[in-house]
Amino acid sequence: CIYTLLVQKMSGSIIESVHTDQRSLIYNILARYSSPLTVVRELIQNSDDAEATRAEIIIGTDSVTFRNNGKPFTDEDWARLVKIASGNPHPQTVGCFGVGFYSVFSLTDNPSITSGNRRLRFFWQNDSLKTERWELPNPVPGATLVFEHVRQEAVAEWKIPLVRSFLIKTLAFTKRLASIAFYVESNPQCNFEVSKHFSALGSVENLDQLIPSDANPHVAFSPHTIHKHRMRISMTESNLGRQSHVATMTLIDAQVNVATSSEYQKQIARVLTKSLPTSIHLKLLYHNYNEDTSELHELIQDLTPLPNKGRIFVGFSTNQTTGTGFHIAAPFFVTMERENVDFNDPIFSEWNSGIIRAAGYVSRLQYDDTVARLMQSGENSQWEKVMEEILVSHSFAPSHPFPKISGDLATSFF
Q1: Long-range contacts of 119-123 (CB under 8 A, 24+ apart)
Q2: Are the beta carbons of 34 and 25 closer than 8 angstroms?
Q3: Is the entire prediction scored with pTM above 0.85?
Q4: What are phi and psi of 26, to 5 degrees?
Q5: pLDDT tens profile 53-63
Q6: How far is Cα 211 from Cα 226, in angstroms, rounded to an integer?
Q7: With the C-alpha atoms ordered 41, 42, 46, 49, is the resulting torsion angle positive or negative?
Q8: Around Cβ 57, how many Cβ atoms within 10 Å?
Q9: Is-contact 115 154, C-beta < 8 A?
């Protein structure tokens, strides 16, 4: 970095203020991201945090437009947007470090954002990032981001099969976002939309009577209620002119109460801008046992967790596997690029390990309930096959890169 020193003589000493080369800082942030679709991931996550139900991505000749129907930006959102490393303070949002938005600079040097009654544009003056803004006479719903003069080499990596598979997997664990459309203006045959729909399968309450209490004195996780859903993912392709079924999954959504000591809260406050939530949603995603895994749609090969292909999701898939036949989604603490779960930092590791223990207990309840229902249904031609898949879903192979994960899951499960 280039440092500009502002020197002031004071009581015989020299006070120096350090200014950072913002361009180099942002490019160093971008270098941490490995996926060509990182910017899409970040914008979808922001849309979900804004309670949007629909998002659209439009690829133009020399531009990319992203818009959603979520809540308009607040004054706090606008202020945080122009501060690098100013994360969202709301305890229920995913972002922690305040750098995810800056992935947009992988597409262009001049992104602009319109939301509510304001428009903001970023531009560079030498190595300093500047903004200019306009007040709009008529409020605009949701948020629209426009990236002009995009880097063609970046968009060229967005191959249609890759984008389809990515958006299907992305939609699996969004909180409110239920559909994502992708349009290519120069080739409408490539246009498609993925969507998801839920149907309730029942619930279980008062889990504290069924699950051992968490004895960790610093941060304890106590599953309280489980809601089970059938999740159906579909895709509409312009070249077919119809909606096609992609997959049916079983989603277990557990409300987990969180108790933290005052000392642990102080330790977290030194690192993050947000307070810890008093409850979290812990989700497990299973393959639907009534679907033939040999005939799975090719676009969800990465989404199906069988056999032992489960991963940890924090809004999106991380590199951490579970070693089981189910995925886990929860507000884990992750590394800055959001691609790995942080088990190195002792403060974050304590939180993350607690969630893993809770997931092991919830998976055992799911196993017991599924086996009980199968036994009640009586033997049929599919009985042995379904029983085998249930067992495979709850088998424990080594997890990577941290093998401790599958071991902790197995300990809680058994």
Answers
A1: 120/78, 120/81, 120/82
A2: no
A3: yes
A4: -65, -40
A5: 999 999 998 99
A6: 12
A7: positive
A8: 19
A9: no
